[in-house]
Every structure is written in C-alpha cells, then in structure tokens.
Amino acid sequence: MVETIEKWANQYGTEAGCFEFYMLGTRLLVVCREDRAREILALRPFKVTRSPEVQEAVYSVGGKGVFGAEGDQWIQEKKLVSSSLNEIHMQDYVPALRESAIALMQKWRVDAKKRPDSVVTVKRDMSHALADSVAKLFMGHNMDCLNNQKSDVAAMVFQLLKAVFLRFVSPVKYWRIPFIGQELDGFGQYLRRGMTVIDQMIMEFEEERATNSKTQSKTFLSKLYDAMEKEKSKLDHERIVGNIVTAFAAGIDTTSLTLLSALFILATNKEMQAELREHITDFDLEAAKIDDFYSKAPLLKSFLHEVHRYHCTPIITLQPTQDIPFGGTTLPKGARIMIFLSHIMLQKDSPADGVPAGPDDAPPHVFSHRRYLAPVNEDSTASNKEQKRQSVDPLTKGMSFLSFGHGVRSCPGRSYTEIFSYSFLIKMLQTFEFELAPNHPLVKIVADTVMAPDKDIELKLTPLSNDEM
Known about the structure:
single chain; alpha+beta; CATH 1.10.630.10; five-stranded mixed beta sheet; 15 helices; 14 strands
C-alpha cells in the first residue's frame, strides 16, 4: 500500500504537495510536502486529532494511554507521563537500560559460540531485551524475557500490533461483540494473560507504596505516582495500565525495528561500522551519565538521528474536529488525512527544513551517518569537509525528527528510546565485529510501524576479545 501511495505522490503530489484518492468509499487526503504538513500539524492537538479508528483500535487492545489520548485527557496525561520520563529522571533509569543491553550481548556471545558459523538471529532477542528494560524501568521488575521467551507480557505485545492493524482496517467493529469479540482475531487470550501479569505488578507496587513510599526503587511508576500526588491529578487504573502497555509496545516493536535497521546498515557497511567503533572505543558505558550519551559520542548520535529520520513512521492518520483552512480551501470536519512522513523526509525536490546536508553534502534521499555533525567553529574560509565537527545540529526546527512527533505532541518516551539505543549500539560495537550471515536472504526496506527490514536478520559475530562480560 505504501509503495502505491509513494508512486501516486511522485505522480500527483509534486505540484500541490498533496493529492486525494478513494479507498473503500472513503475520501483520503495525502499530504506529501512539508509546508502542507505544517498547516495540518500546527492545529494539533485540538483542532486536529488522531483518526477515531486508530484511537479505538489502540484502546481495544488495552492501550488507553498518552499515545491515543486527545483533548483534555491528553493534557492531563502528557504532563504526568512526561514529567516521569524527563531527562532528570532518566538518570535514575540508565542502569536498567544499560543492564538490558549488556545482558543481550552476553546472550549473543554464548549463542554464537554454540554455532560453528557464529551466527545469531536478531529481532526476537532484541525485542525481549527491550521488554526487560521496560519492566525494570517502569515497574522495577526483572521479567528476564531474554532467557524466558514464553513471557505472557511479551507474547501479548507481539500480538498487540497485529491486532491494532486488523482492527484499524476492519469495516466491522467485531471486538465490541459481547463475550466473543476479543477472541475473533485471536488476541483475547494474549490480552487476558498479559494484563493479568501487569495488573499483578501494579498491585504489588501499590501495596509496597502504601507501606513506605520512600523506600521504593526509582521507577516510572514511583515517579508517576509522585507526580499525581504533587499535581493532585490522578489517572485511573485502566489508564495507568494503558501507559505501561504503550511503553511495552513502543519498546518491543518500534525501538527494536529501528535498531534492526541500524544493525542492518552497519552489517552491510564495514567502513561505517569501523568508523563508529573507533569513535566509541573509549566510551565508558558503566560510568556514563545521561549527559555523556548526548555529548561524548557525536558521530554515534548523528548516526542514530539519521536512522530515525531515514526509517521513520511512514504514515500518520489524522482528522479535523472542525472545519479547518488548508491550501487556500477548507477541509471539513471529519476529513481523513494521511501525513506521508517517509516521503516528506526523503524528498529530493522539496526537502524538509532542518535536514542538514552535513560534511558530506548528502541530499535527503541518501542515508548519511554524518548528516547531523555541525562545525565546532564557523570558518568561512574552510570548505565544508575541512571544517572540524564535534557537535550535533539541534533538531528543534523543521520536521527532520518527526519520528518522535511534532510540537506539543512529541513523544514523551524519546529519551528512553535514545538512551537504550546508545547503550546497545555502544556495547555492540565494543563487543563484536559483525556482518550478515553467509547466504543471507535478500533484505528489502518496507513499511511497518517504521520503515524497516522486511525480515529478521542473521548476523555473524566475531568477538573483539576473549574476555567474558
């Protein structure tokens, strides 16, 4: 579907920056140029919201959290969730993220030794390591999904996004049918088992908090409850659970797919891999504070920014809650809008603002791991490539970082995703050289929750030392 819309965008959307088509009797507006997208996104979060079909699909699988919230509910929830995941609190979470990344390296070292070709399969282990990091960071629990891959919570989340997609495109809201609705697509059994585990964890947390809140470990839940008490603004149990489910879904699916793309890029470009490895050789992951991740590895930071840009969420669907101005005309209340992010990010003719060319003068449709490196000192006499670059361009302007949302609707979990990704990539580069397994099937980049490889990848690992971690 995305490939077809891409062809139409190139054919019909170049001049106006948008075009319309009909699908199943519904008129859809596709916005495929940045200036047009800005007109729509400037009206978030009240005059333009997520489509009700997306919200209902997400809510139907237990995800009643900040991701699907709109209006006044979103204002309350965003404030509480964001304050619990801000960069000050993230320092308390760094150990849990680091431990999960190290545990994955340990497992891969053992698994590679067991095979004569030293090959490991990436995505499932990556997803389970991320599930462990979410459980530790958000609830203080060690689920050890990495070594117990029959976890009910992980199984629920693996099935959750499939159910969301089926329910989003379904013309019939079958899940509403009493007693049997949740079973019709097979998701009900996973939902019950996963929710039982999450409910139990939250109950244990609340019992411990009632006894002595000051001795509780520093987790997202403890900080969320602190914020609710401070703001005198309480979320009900269903929405607390919904935010935990949302965190698991974002970690297990979106972050794992992004890192799968990162590994695929590095496995197929040994020169880039070697350059990044040399860059982070002396990075002390054990002693790292949160500021170190953002300041001491600028090339890695630029690489990860480019992965997020190049492998962004392909499309977001929105809907105006009232008549709104657009392109010299008026979009009626309830119009269906698709913001074609992946097309906007990679456009040759009308590149998005805030996407620098970098020292390699790379056009936006080309992946460039140095793109976000900026000159230390502006020197008009030096060529672009001769300028010394140690920092990273700010990404506060333009649309170059729409992977994490836009404006006030930006993702509150961005720091979590970035710190885990930095920890994982640093440890991976310090521990192994890696390449695609021999005779690896052809990999294509396709539309998923983000643009990502169309299949799991297998890596041949070569340890850089014989030391056990």
